[in-house]
């Protein structure tokens, strides 16, 4: 029997890893010396960064989805059967169907999800855009909005580090175009003692907020929402009323991770360079579900997948994981007014965003289309 690679999750990380492996060891897959099986929850692959544009009517929802089967190389065995239990000691995974999948090398890429239920009242009174359903609900609320107070609040950790700044500046733009900015108070809150956790981004964002009349409060960690009073209070003791609450709920890893005892909060202890699960040479962790000290972002999934693939192939062939991830991340930042900037950084070099330009905005919009090539392991 050939070596069996089992990949859990068919989002960004799972798709890139699987497709890239096929491209690199095509012959072994054709001869059956190696096989790849991907377990997913659904055939629908969503381009999640597109959900940022959905509330502002800047994209159609249908443009953000593809069939996963068409993204994955035909040599990959794609099965819709969510992993229910991962047993890394016995090298096997049980699906919700009850079927058992044995492996030689396992790749865990089950991502992370927003958990509004962790903040009392947030599910009932808040909005968010980190799910398809949430982004559509926020789109409907904004279409009806005629003015008032909009509060923006984040839970930690969350995916896409720059989304708080982007949604705020895009909201400002949207309200101006709609002609109701004068009638709207935008109040931005952030959990640490600055408007963003990356110092260079915070330094750049403060004068932009001031120029656009966006008020802000730092050291604001969401505690609870009083649904009837429409009031959000913080762990630090302050509270703020709102007409519309736009939040990024705190995120957690997939439930299968905690239920299998692989990591608290769904975050798996991962070697930050080789991307192997701590203590297991034949288990790799890619994407949001790692506990790496770096942003949870699609680009993190992409750059770390490049390294993981080399190491997976090496381990499949009986070798060692010798390729090392340096923590590379690249994120565009939409700044409104048809402009954007970007940050590029790694474990040891913090980012410095250059001044926003229209060119970078168009590069971001182009990437939104090119993403499907990334998922196919081509770009
Ligand atoms: C609004 C928004 C804007 C963003 N903007 C950017 C951006 O500009 N730049 C950027 O780099 N990143 C951005 N991101 C973040 C990026 O989308 C994520 O970091 C990325 O999708 C993580 O990839 P992943 O493969 O780890 O997880 P996902 O892409 O979420 O994939 C995980 C997959 O695992 C599946 N799964 C879960 N549990 C199981 C199970 N038990 N069995 C089998 N499968 C399972 C899920 O269904 C899912 O398909 C944004 C995200 C959002 C929501």
From TrEMBL:
Residue stretches spanning the membrane: none
Gene3D superfamilies: FAD/NAD(P)-binding domain
Pfam families referenced in this protein's UniProt entry, alphabetically: Pyr_redox_2
Coiled coil spans: none
Organism domain of life: Bacteria
Residue ranges of every copy of the FAD/NAD(P)-binding domain listed in the record: 4-143
One annotated GO molecular function: oxidoreductase activity
Name used for this protein in its record: Flavoprotein reductase
